[in-house]
Design goal:
It contains four helices and no strands. It is mainly α and about 80 residues long.
Length: about 80
């Protein structure tokens, strides 16, 4: 459900919101929404579902890289890069 809220911003905050919007290439309202969610996540930590998603991703990476020698991989990439 979407609810409307009115914010009164001082000049510095209004300018910061506009700069964020320009950086995100979105509306000021969307930039403020993103900033609020980011601040919440920074203050409270990631939600449980997001943490689980990250754990699944890292576990998948472990499976994908199983049996690979990282030192050998780096040597191979350095040899490939010398060609450039």
């Amino acid at each position: 459900m979407v609810r409307r809220t009115t914010l009164i911003l001082d000049e510095e905050t209004r300018l910061a919101a506009r700069q964020l919007a320009a950086s995100y290439d979105c509306s000021v309202s969307e930039a403020i929404r993103r900033a609020v969610v980011q601040q919440r996540d920074a203050a409270r930590g990631l939600p449980l579902e997001k943490r689980k998603e990250r754990v699944r991703a890292i576990e998948r990476l472990f499976v994908l890289f199983e049996g690979h020698d990282p030192d050998e991989e780096i040597r191979r990439l350095k040899i490939e890069d010398d060609g450039f």
